[in-house]
Design brief:
Layout: H1 7-17, E1 26-35, E2 49-59, H2 62-83, E3 89-92, E4 104-111, E5 117-127, H3 129-134, E6 137-139, E7 145-147, E8 149-156, H4 158-167, E9 184-188, H5 193-212, E10 217-219, H6 227-237, E11 241-245, H7 247-252, E12 254-259, E13 268-272, H8 276-301, E14 303-304, H9 309-318, E15 320-325, H10 329-339, E16 342-347, E17 355-356, E18 363-364, E19 366-371
Parallel strand pairs: 9-10, 9-11, 14-15
Antiparallel strand pairs: 1-2, 2-8, 3-4, 3-16, 4-5, 5-8, 6-7, 11-12, 12-13, 15-19, 16-19, 17-18
């Protein structure tokens, strides 16, 4: 089925399922593929078919539905920041940019490595719009028929693209430790059978210790490949930490640890095998924090607070423009036509006071993020 999301399918079924206030709330979460018509596809970001997580809920009161909407925005924000190490801006979409049929659309916006914005996740407060369209009603405690209040929210494989574009470099992927399938790859180094036996015995011991501590470990035991080839291969795959173990390391009771986020000698250090679990755990924490800090510094360096429209035009050519906006849809449309930048979101965290709209000069109560986007 070619469809954008599941609101129509869900609405049709809920009209049959919901009869009483005792049936509420309904909280549905699903993982599924979606097929959409895209004029121009772009890997991960805009594809004909993609996989995603979407949720739909129905509530008896407006307050419950609004709380659910904001809770999911917070969940997505927490995931982006603490797991994917991507600093995002949670905010509200404008009337022209919100989801069709929603009263309010919230989103998390991130800046990519080329300065463009990416909508990384959304949460919609649908009000009673879909409930009225599909007759989703319930008998309340007084016996009166009431329309439900509904929400929907989603995060897709587009986020994989965000991780690649925010953290990746010319060597390939750079994966945050909390999300990496393998957090540590161990590369044994030896020249003969005797060295191999000693090294692999040591490797097995270290792998067992790390695995027991919950660290995801891969040992590269492939034959016929040089250590250098393996180093490059795992760098391309983005594994956060590489451990090198050779005969000299076995003798010294240490290993060489190489961080993916710091290529070359800068990212290498000697780690004692005694207490290696704590040492590797700390290195992984350091990589996670460093990736977030680097991404945040990039966003701050590429976010301008323009005072004139000319400054605004220059700002959106390289990154984010954080500017006062009057809220007028025509003003927003003019900005898009003149600069190719769209209003990404009105951040929930707003400065005190008021200002003048960056485009028309009218009084403005809120600041918005404008950027060119994928």
């Amino acid at each position: 089925m070619v469809r954008p999301t599941s609101e129509t399918i869900i609405g049709h079924m809920w009209a049959k399922w919901v009869q009483s206030y005792r049936d509420l709330p309904i909280l549905m979460n699903q993982w599924n593929s979606v097929v959409r018509w895209e004029l121009r596809t772009k890997l991960f970001l805009r594809t004909l078919e993609f996989y995603w997580q979407e949720g739909h809920t129905a509530h008896a009161t407006r307050e419950e539905a609004e709380a659910e909407t904001r809770q999911m925005l917070d969940v997505y924000t927490d995931f982006a920041v603490n797991d994917a190490a991507i600093p995002v801006i949670p905010g509200r979409k404008s009337e022209s940019e919100k989801f069709a049929g929603a009263d309010v659309t919230y989103a998390i916006e991130a800046i990519m490595g080329d300065g463009k914005a990416l909508q990384a996740g959304t949460s919609h407060f649908l009000g009673q719009n879909f409930a009225k369209a599909f007759e989703i009603r319930y008998l309340d405690q007084t016996g009166q028929l009431q329309y439900c209040w509904t929400t929907s929210w989603g995060l897709s494989t587009r986020f994989v693209g965000a991780i690649i574009m925010v953290h990746g470099d010319d060597q390939g992927l750079v994966l945050p430790p909390k999300l990496a399938p393998f957090q540590v790859v161990i590369v044994p180094i030896f020249k003969n059978d005797d060295e191999q036996a000693r090294v692999m015995e040591n490797v097995a011991k270290i792998r067992a210790e790390l695995t027991a501590a919950g660290i995801r470990v891969k040992v590269d035991e492939r034959d016929g490949l040089t250590p250098g080839f393996k180093f490059n291969d795992w760098e391309m795959r983005g594994v956060p930490l590489r451990i090198e173990i050779g005969p000299k390391d076995v003798a010294k009771g240490s290993v060489v640890a190489a961080r993916r986020d710091k290529p070359g000698k800068e990212g290498k250090s000697f780690v004692q095998q005694q207490g290696i679990v704590a040492s590797i755990g700390k290195l992984l924490d350091d990589v996670q924090k460093a990736l977030y800090d680097r991404a945040l510094a990039f966003r701050e360096a590429n976010t301008a607070d323009p005072k004139t429209y000319d400054e605004f035009k220059h700002a959106v050519e390289k990154g984010f423009a954080y500017a006062w906006w009057c809220g007028n849809e025509q003003c927003e449309a003019n900005i898009k036509e003149e600069t190719k930048a769209t209003m990404r979101c009105i951040p929930l965290d707003q400065p005190a006071g008021s200002g003048k709209c960056i485009h028309c000069g009218s009084p403005a109560k809120e600041k918005a993020i404008f950027a060119r986007a994928y």
